[in-house]
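Please check this record.
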Amino acid sequence: MLKPYFHKTLIEAGCDEAGRGCLAGPVFAAAVILPKTFKNNLLTDSKQLTDAQRYVLRPLIEKEALAFAVAQVNNLEIDEINILNASFLAMHRALDKLKLTPEFILIDGNRFKPYKNIKHECIIKGDGKYLSIAAASILAKTYRDDFMKEAHNKYPNYAWDKNMGYPTIKHRAAIKQFGTTNLHRLSFKLLPDQLKLEL
């Protein structure tokens, strides 16, 4: 059972990102402030849920949350500032968009760049421990999946509707055959050494 909060009295936002390990597309992040009394037996780390379960949970989270926001950092920005900084920036952008200012931030992972003067706690595997982080993981994941499915319509050769931009065999084979798109992260190792792309 996931914990409902870290601090009982503070307005607490959970943050998580999706798409750090992808070869293409933005990294997305979400920030979610849930009521202290929020309960949902299905809600857990988005990686433990099916695609259908995540899309069932998303409107429930959005309806019940005191505030939520989703933001992204695109592939060009990722190439410029690196994926770790891009992940922090995506979370900051999501926090910027919240209609309610949090007093404390719960971050999934072991590192974070401080946001304004708001205290935070990094929780390793936090999306499997706290409801607000799990909720953020579901929003970040589903909104990013929606983006990549839409991008698939423009670039159908890369099977982004299935792999969401992650480095699958099919995705890498398409890069080898068709080259890169304007959504690929050129600072990433797109192909193994034996399959290097002639740019």
Notes: Strands lie at 12-18, 27-33, 67-73, 104-108, 119-123. Helices lie at 51-64, 75-81, 83-97, 131-154, 160-163, 169-178.
